Amino acid sequence: THEELGEWAITINPFDVDATADALHKALLMDPVERHARAEKMRAVVQQNDVARWISAQLQDIRDLIEPLAARQPEVSREEALVAGEGTI
């Protein structure tokens, strides 16, 4: 993401055609030493934040959203659920 790679990446709005062209131009003209250094930094970020870490963070974000909602839901007994659903679950 931009937050993770923005310091080293040339970030753009993909819907901005002119900015995309400018970014490509900048990248093509970039000094090879700078290009290599940026690539190494981005590669390190990607290696540290592999797919396992990414999916774990996504699942934790979901848990963080669900737990407060679940805490607000009143406990309903099986009998109350049956009455509310007229005998069907």
Written account of the structure:
There is one protein chain. The chain is mainly alpha-helical and 89 residues long. It has 2 domains: 1-49, no CATH class; 51-89, no CATH class. 71% of the residues lie in helices and 0% in strands. It contains 5 helices and no strands. The protein has helices at residues 2-5, 17-29, 32-48, 51-72, 78-84. The chain starts with a helix and ends in a 5-residue tail after the last helix. The mean pLDDT is 87.
Quickly list its features.
89 residues; 2 domains; mainly alpha; 5 helices
Task: Summarize the helices and strands and which ones pair or pack.
Blueprint lengths: L1 H4 L11 H13 L2 H17 L2 H22 L5 H7 L5
The main β sheet shows up as: none
Q: What portion of the residues fall into strands of 2 or more residues? A: under 5%
Described by the principal axes of the CA atoms, the overall outline is elongated
Q: Give the helix proportion (percent range).
A: over 70%
Let me know the number of strands: 0
Q: Specify Rg, calculated over alpha carbons.
A: 24 Å
Mean pLDDT: 87
Number of helices: 5
Order of helices and strands: HHHHH
Low-pLDDT windows of residues: none
Structural class: mainly alpha
Number of domains: 2
What separation lies between the terminal Cα atoms? 43 Å
